[in-house]
Task: structure prediction
Amino acid sequence: MDKRPMSPMDRKALKDTLLFTLPAVVMVLIAIYIPFVMSGYYSLTEWNGISRNPQFIGLANFKTIFSSGSPEFVNALVFTFKYSILFIILSNVIALALAVALTRKFRLANFLRGMFFLPYIMSMTIVGFIWKFIFTQGFEKLYELTGWGVWNLSWLGDGRLAFFSLVLVGTWQSLGFYIVLYIAGLQAIPTEVLEAASIDGANGSQRFFKVVLPLLGPSITTCMFMSLTNSLKVFDIILALTKGGPGGATYSATLDIYREAFQNNNYGLGSAKAIVFFVIVLILTQVVLKVFESREVKQ
Amino acid sequence: MKKLLCMLLTAAALLSLCVAPAMAEDAAEINMFIASPEYADAVNELIAAYKEVAPNVTINYETTQNDYPTLLKTRINAGMTPDIFSTTSGKEIADYAEYSYNFASEPAAQAMDPAVAAMMAYGDGEIHGFALKGNYFGMLYNKAIFEEVGIEFPKTLDEFEAACEKLTEAGYQPVTTGFAEWWVFKHVMQHFLDAATDDPAALVAAFQKGEAHFADYPELYDNFFRFIDLCVKYGDNKPLETDLAGEDSAFGVGKAAMMIGQGAWVEADVLAIDDALQIGFAGYPVCDDPAKSQIIGGSDQALRINKDSANLQAVLDFVNWWYTSDYGKAWFCDVAGVIPPVTDAKVADMQIIKQGAELSQTDGAAALSICYSSDSFNQAMGEAIQAYIGGSIDKDACCAQIEAKWVELDGPAA
Result:
């Protein structure tokens, strides 16, 4: 920072900056930070979400969570981590492969980019209902037509299969977003580098793994980070497809928090779970971010 | 230009000053935010009719399909409690008691059907809710299929199994279950609960204190699970994937002969698939005693009046008119097509409602015992039984889980 006095120009710029960011800051405060602080307070209370007077009980809710009083929360966390790992791997690998394919020049490339992006602009709830229809009615019809056993499996009615159904639909829906990020990254790679690699005798796969992939570092970091946070927060797709069923087999952490706060009428305990989950997500995302950033190739 | 605008605005302001006091005289607004979106058209008609009776009263009616309880809680906590809101009856009457008006002394409470009023009672003779409709719970069956196969509707579990066998032989799917919905289980379970004891309220209370156990009640431990097993065996191909819509279509197209977990509310939906459908309505086969196979009547939904409403008198006038005027009483049957929750009103011309009314006269109706538990518990119970059907836990683990949830969610400590 230089210490020369603020010129009228600078002062105006500062005023503009403050003025233009103010509405956004106010909205974010109202929608995110104030509720966050409030749920921090509610996590210290016993409250059913209905009565007028939440009762302050200190850290008792957190004690309940950590003293094994909440096997459902632990199950939900395990489910969420399993979902996240599979989702991150699938969405990134498939998106990268498709992005590489779609940056080639062929006639339908632009059309296909649009097609892959389409599910992403649909509401997750709508996507959920469409797939629910496909899984139930659609698969039944396919079984009648083909007689293949795979259509006759209960894709939403069997706890283990429902997990894969959710990963499948979740990946399908968000693929377009990651494809776009990877395409942008691929197009930013200078062609000279690739040409130089070709002249040095690198074949296709060498060029991809030794040149393209390392140079995609920033895109990979972004995509990993986005897919991690999105998969940890998974909620609407489960609500639309299975509602946590069958038999509670597909409760994610967020859905479990929702159930605790709004269905079981334990708003305090639900808030405490939300805080715990927030800390877990914070630590996890920071670690992942640091690991991937440290491995990026500096151009 | 500016001058003109100024003048116009001033004129408008002055005009509104003159008009406002005239309008404000006994004008009242009633904010009505209730569940049951399926009756939106009927409620709008009711409101239009009331506009003629009380032109100064404006009723702002809102409803939602999804997630009503969460939205209601949000409004209550924001200090915007609707003047009329819904909860379930029974246990939730107490949860929201501090917000709701006791209108036991109003004419509407006197006009209420006693079976409905029992579900709205709180404390010592207080009435904390009224119903949009009465309801019937039981099993639906396809009369034509039963006639074709030549069997009577089963009233005991052995007869039920035999009927399923015969129906399978005749090429029909005996039952459709809707086991993907958690609430189907509470509707089925209450029939077995009523069979297990003469005082279901006390039994549920004992479960909630952790003093009762499934194993002590053969109607629950043996019969209920036998019924579930049979329904899985003779039911839908993918039981945990079949929801209400799946049930409606299997029963509506005449593929399935019986439909469980439902009641009067599905009639319009299945008739929309096949309007010639001959629907039979009966109690569940719960044990060896055919007399215990009874339907259940009552109201599981309550409409509540906000006791701190700014226009309490206007709200009470509206509710009294709804429950006691000729139009209001006829509305239940003629417009909404529901079972009237008031005495001395005519009964709608629908198959399930007519048979329900008849059966409760001849065989009696069992208690609406789902209302003694909260929906939080009922949902947890549904999930436990789904896990049992899915095979991830066995019967004893399922019973233990339900017992634990009863204490955890509805017990004295909850």
